[in-house]
Amino acid sequence: MPRTLRLAMIGGGEGAFIGAIHRAAAALDGHWRLVAGAFSSDPDRNRRSGEALEIAPERRYSSLEALLAAEAALPAAERVDAVAIVTPNHLHAPMAIAALDAGFHVFCEKPMALDLNEARSIAEAQARSGRQFALAFTYSGYPLVEEARVRVARGDFGKIRLVQVEYSQGWLSRPIDREGNKQAEWRTDPARAGLGGCLGDIGTHAFHLAEHVSGLQVRDLCADLTTHVPGRRLDDDVSVLLRLEGGARGTLKASQVAAGDENGLKLRIHGELGGLEWSQMEPNSLVLRWLDRPTEIVRAAGPGLAEATLSLLRTPSGHPEGYIEAFANLYRAFAMRISDSAGTDLDSAFPSVDAGLRTMAFVESVIANSASDKKWTTLAPA
Amino acid sequence: MPRTLRLAMIGGGEGAFIGAIHRAAAALDGHWRLVAGAFSSDPDRNRRSGEALEIAPERRYSSLEALLAAEAALPAAERVDAVAIVTPNHLHAPMAIAALDAGFHVFCEKPMALDLNEARSIAEAQARSGRQFALAFTYSGYPLVEEARVRVARGDFGKIRLVQVEYSQGWLSRPIDREGNKQAEWRTDPARAGLGGCLGDIGTHAFHLAEHVSGLQVRDLCADLTTHVPGRRLDDDVSVLLRLEGGARGTLKASQVAAGDENGLKLRIHGELGGLEWSQMEPNSLVLRWLDRPTEIVRAAGPGLAEATLSLLRTPSGHPEGYIEAFANLYRAFAMRISDSAGTDLDSAFPSVDAGLRTMAFVESVIANSASDKKWTTLAPA
Amino acid sequence: MPRTLRLAMIGGGEGAFIGAIHRAAAALDGHWRLVAGAFSSDPDRNRRSGEALEIAPERRYSSLEALLAAEAALPAAERVDAVAIVTPNHLHAPMAIAALDAGFHVFCEKPMALDLNEARSIAEAQARSGRQFALAFTYSGYPLVEEARVRVARGDFGKIRLVQVEYSQGWLSRPIDREGNKQAEWRTDPARAGLGGCLGDIGTHAFHLAEHVSGLQVRDLCADLTTHVPGRRLDDDVSVLLRLEGGARGTLKASQVAAGDENGLKLRIHGELGGLEWSQMEPNSLVLRWLDRPTEIVRAAGPGLAEATLSLLRTPSGHPEGYIEAFANLYRAFAMRISDSAGTDLDSAFPSVDAGLRTMAFVESVIANSASDKKWTTLAPA
Amino acid sequence: MPRTLRLAMIGGGEGAFIGAIHRAAAALDGHWRLVAGAFSSDPDRNRRSGEALEIAPERRYSSLEALLAAEAALPAAERVDAVAIVTPNHLHAPMAIAALDAGFHVFCEKPMALDLNEARSIAEAQARSGRQFALAFTYSGYPLVEEARVRVARGDFGKIRLVQVEYSQGWLSRPIDREGNKQAEWRTDPARAGLGGCLGDIGTHAFHLAEHVSGLQVRDLCADLTTHVPGRRLDDDVSVLLRLEGGARGTLKASQVAAGDENGLKLRIHGELGGLEWSQMEPNSLVLRWLDRPTEIVRAAGPGLAEATLSLLRTPSGHPEGYIEAFANLYRAFAMRISDSAGTDLDSAFPSVDAGLRTMAFVESVIANSASDKKWTTLAPA
Predict the structure, then answer these.
(1) What distance in Å separates the CA atoms of residue A55 and residue B254, rounded to the nearest whole number?
(2) Is C295 on the interface with A (CB under 8 A)?
(3) Alpha helices for chain D (secondary structure H)
(4) Rounded to 5 degrees, what are φ and ψ at A196?
């Protein structure tokens, strides 16, 4: 277990959803202590947020620049180790690059950037800085997602033929982006959200999960992007046909206008011998179906799990772990990697620049294909 | 309740699966009595099947032609009322046309025919004969499918935006079509199955269910047909993007190589206000999700059902009805229509020629699109 | 497959629920043809029911006595083989005895009789007549109940420790028995229903299922019978602690005032090595949980089933079979036993007199115990 | 939001399960910081645990006595606010009393004590100290348990008739208590676990949940305690019939030999108008069934929740919260109560002495009844 590391947060002031989740996830296992932050560009809001979080007054910064400068000047034993970036998407790239270049590790919200070019700049900054970069593709932190990944990789299902992923939400069914909902507002604003709406916000999660668990890269895709709510400036619904390496076929469906749906991320993969199904809303079960024997339900902390899965669990079987715990698994892996001197194999323990580059390439390819009459668009291999 | 009608069956001899289902479905409510048949082109098998079914020897016919000739010569009070055609697909059209033209009502297995042209010929025969024609899109016979249809039609969900249908089987994961499995053999033989493999066998079910419940016709589609099992002559996996009338978007996924999956037909429809989900493997529940109130589970014979749904139920709530009961609902509606003098509005009570024409047009469009580099293929409105 | 047998029905006229179920179950597989009946003591209702069922006028009888006399006088090749008794409980014993003594096989609704003495009289009549007697403990006809029974019997779970059965309905939550609901009326009338209300109606089902699947007899019980709805004359809620042979412990809970519940019959059995769970409302799955390996879901017509289970299935996996099919399995076994010359081992294929005697002894023991301050009442072994 | 409070922990050193859970739960929302502890009576283990948890060396105490003395001597601004007691059961009472008497708030593991007398001593110490006492009946911290409680209390279901609670585990199916499993060892040792085995360990959870949500106290009970595993010194299986105030009837079933079961705590309550069902293993759904309208699924953070429920949630709907989050709700309520000057209404926000007294009275009554031939034992009202 590493010593407790020190974290700074950019964004995530009063009322922000994801900042609070990052803080809980970072706190859960005791590997991180939040000691500094620039929580809001509004000075009053920044102050109130800092007070509520019991941040020392001198470490409540007015901006990322101020934070980086002041923290870099502190002795190593006091300086923050990493910066968590939980701002709207358009700030991810400049902030991540600045923080990496200032010598700090970075834990960044997804999507990585506004476009692939920006993502590449982050990747370059990561490489030249030698610092760690973690990307909040939270769902890969669930223990049974890891179990699924391990089982596919070791060939339990034989050659993979089908990959089906869907991410179904309904919260943007009404035009709340024009009725004062802040979360909806920036997520549907191209200047702040980037090229994709639903595509960037949750389509990237679905894409990442599919490639991460299947171990297969998407080669070609054919997409239909739609905006159902009149006046909305970005897509709110995504349908994609996938052709993956090795001949597997796939579908990716993401929607934020599936009225009544909550956070329905679901992955199914089938090979020659059987298939798996995992659903984020019941994350502690992994369903395995077989050609020649009864269906199995592998359960968190139950019998039959891989070593890698067990390391991601905190409670005995039947005591559900949830979203914050999955998130905490990323923060824990991030802490362990930082505490460890070695720095290779970035994507195995937590999503990093490779995941970011793949997902941004996916976003650009979907947008290009959707605007075209041509059926298939090739996604360059990573 | 009509008098009991007399049924003849073509095909469905010893060992055939679907013939036995037709017989059980026809018998369940007492509206039909099987009194004649040509169960097999093999004389011994035909005789043994007829004996087992207690068909009088003189009404065990050697062929459809013999059956039609002999039955037509019987007095009306003895003559069969309808012919059930449960042969491989390539015989549907010639047999249905012959039976209609001989003055018999026809209950035909799906798909309607080998191609759209054949289907049109059946439709013409139906029209000129004035006889009833029922098509075994069984899943529309489930009570909660009717409930779903009624609720969409009366606007419970507002304008429909999303239609997602999938039909996932795994029984063709191995090359059993080349290992002596009769069912697999003819279903993957273009001469007997028609243009589509998985597409014709179960993709048509999925398509019919989607249009039937949504009340919306597919306008354009973009498809990816695949054959995963080496040496197989027809597709075993289908992925389709759909654009429906009124702007709704959809996906259709059908596979017979989803190893371990049984008979996973599932439909989801979302409108502006909420959505529904129905799954064939748990057919007695209909899940309704809403933007602004808790999820509801509408149950067979439970509170809140439409009149039309209640008429399709036989048991009190909590006593599950299944596939044979759904099938029997088609046979009952078919009997009632025949007993009734009126003959319009064919598709509302049981799938008929319109359903057949739509599904055959779908099959042809998918095949054309899948072979093309062009993204969208328009499906002519019915 | 036997020749089609001829069935007569007593009771089950217009509007009766269970008569229609018996008819559907008997018809489903083609082993029975309903050719005679005394459907109602009301002559008009009897006539209308007989017409609707297309019973020949001369075989629409005014009473059981008339039926038995006339049918016995017919040539063997025309005479009915069996009589289905679907009247209220107080008529079961006299009618079953009369039918058996007249030389007919009997399929009787449950509970077997008003009390244990009556049940013994039926058992004696069955023994002296040499005729078959089937009792409608329908739930033992479900394929996966048979699978559960086989697996317990062959020791999959080791020595059995726990048996938990529950049967939860809500339809008697309001005093509908005093508001004109016919079903509720006679079921809560001691003169027609017998000693137990909920206890006799569904408690007996639960008890039979528990002993049938566990293969263990209840030795001692401790019960709490309650009537929740004011003015009701029989119990509407039953709770029982069970001690079974071999040291297993159990609970039995039955209620008809669990408002909102449908027909929640559920059985759980645990042994040293694992346990099973079966739920009537999702009857095509059997859940197996294990100490040392993942949970398994055994599915109707899926891999891993016992031979005995396969013989009870009609459709491929994923095509749900329901309550009528389970009922039809009893009628099929009844037909096969009758067609077969051998006559032993009555309870293995369908519930018979032993099941009836056990359940009536259970009813009497529960009532005696519930009225007593003594904790345990011994149930005499069969 | 209160300032961060300071926590000390007694027990919970390396390898202990529940100590780690307390730490995660206390850390999650940032209301508690662990600054002191006596983690083990073994000095090396205590030191290693303290180091791993980054406790300052001078605050790693060798015993509770040392901790209380030293912390009491610190200035108020440094002194710990509360002590978490996570030792085996026999130490709960002496330690809780000592800590309360020394002026510290106490968060104690359940069961409260070895017997009712001890529990009363804690209650007296709590009263005379004026300090807060929280008891880890964790399951009452789940948001949808609160929703259930609110809905029962406001009369959604009418008068309550049925309360059914069960807690099913299988981890003690084998004699692991004699094979070196530390958790199993002390939990089956009367000297350390108290009067009840399964009864004290999980039966108390079930009892607390039932009374907490129903708002009804158990008046009389009838119990059957069993030890299935040979040589075990305490019960491993509990069955109880309950009679609650107002005429409601109930059952309580707890087992630790339900082989294959994980942590199956489930509560069902029915009133005149409908019923609820909550299951700990899928804690983010509350199922509501109704006499006269469709079943509803109320979801965490979904529409229709009470204010009190919303205050217990951290993530948007569809992002599962689990066991640690429920536990954290207790720690948060505990912190808020301490930070607040008022001190009444102890049991509403977190389980306190009343819950402890009720559950210990339950344990004693079950043991007394189980050993008796008399059917009912009265549980004195609180």
Answers:
(1) 55
(2) yes
(3) 17-28, 43-52, 64-72, 92-101, 116-129, 143-153, 182-187, 190-193, 198, 204-214, 307-310, 323-339, 346-349, 353-370
(4) -115, 145
Phi and psi at residue B272, to the nearest 5°: -65, -30
Mark which of C112, C138, C164 sits at the end of a domain: C138
Region of D234 please: left (phi>0), alpha (psi -120 to 50) or beta: beta
D376 inside domain? no
- Other C-beta atoms lying within 10 Å of the C-beta of residue B57: 8
The Cα A291–Cα A304 span in angstroms is 19
Considering the domain architecture, whether residues C147 and C115 belong to the same structural domain is answered as: no
Chain A: residue whose CA lies nearest to B251:
A239
> Are A222 and A366 within 8 A, CB to CB?
no
Chain B contact present for C321, CB below 8 A: yes
Helix or strand run (H / E) with residue C186: helix C182-187
With contact defined as beta carbons under 8 Å apart, do C261 and C273 qualify? no
Q: Do A59 and A20 lie in a common domain?
A: yes
Q: Which residues contact D94 (CB under 8 A, 6 or more apart)?
A: none
Separation CA C324–CA B284 (nearest Å): 14
Q: Which of C17, C171, C320 sits opposite B323 (nearest CB)?
A: C320
Cβ within 8 Å, pair C259-D290: yes
Domain annotation covers residue C365: yes
Q: Is B86 found in the same domain as B17?
A: yes
pLDDT in tens, B243-269: 999 999 999 999 999 999 999 999 999
**Please, what sign has the CA dihedral across residues C99, C100, C102, C107?**
positive
| Exposure of C268 in the CB half-sphere (CA atoms within 13 A) | 23
Q: How many CB pairs under 8 A join B and D?
A: 40
Tokens linked to A61: 């910064």
> Nearest to residue A172, comparing CAs of A140, A199, A208?
A199
In sequence order, the 6+-apart residues with CB closer than 8 A to the CB of C31 are C1, C2, C4, C5, C331, C332, C335, C336
D298-337 pLDDT tens trace: 999 999 999 999 999 999 999 999 999 999 999 999 999 9
Residues B52 and B67: their CA atoms lie apart, in Å, by: 19
| Domain annotation covers residue D161 | yes
Phi, psi of D266 (to 5 degrees): -140, 135
Asked whether the beta carbons of residue A297 and residue C297 sit closer than 8 angstroms, the reply is yes
d(CA D324, CA D366): 30
Q: Which is nearest to B320 in space by CA: C194, C139, A230?
A: C139
- Over range B57-71, report the average pLDDT: 97
Q: Same structural domain for residues C10 and C127? A: yes
Q: How far, in Å, CA of D249 to CA of D241, rounded?
A: 8
* Token digits of residue A262: 């909550």
Asked whether residue C347 carries a pLDDT value surpassing 60, the answer given is no
CB contact under 8 A, D376 and C372: no
Q: Give the residue ranges of chain A where pLDDT is below 70.
A: 1-2, 341-348
Chain C residues in contact with B314 by the CB 8 A cut-off are: 20-21, 24, 324
Token couple for C348? 């293995």
Residue type, C272: E
Span D174-199, average pLDDT: 91
Kindly report the CATH number assigned to the domain that includes residue D65: 3.40.50.720
Q: What is the dihedral of CA B201, B204, B208, B210, to 10 degrees?
A: 110
What ipTM, to 2 d.p.?
0.95
> What distance in Å separates the CA atoms of residue A241 and residue A223, rounded to the nearest whole number?
6
* Between residues C340 and C101, the one the model is more confident about: C101
State the virtual CA torsion across B365, B371, B376, B381 in degrees, nearest 10.
-10
CB atoms within 10 A of CB B364: 18
Range of the domain at B145: 141-313+351-370
The answer to whether the beta carbons of residues B161 and B216 sit under 8 Å apart is no
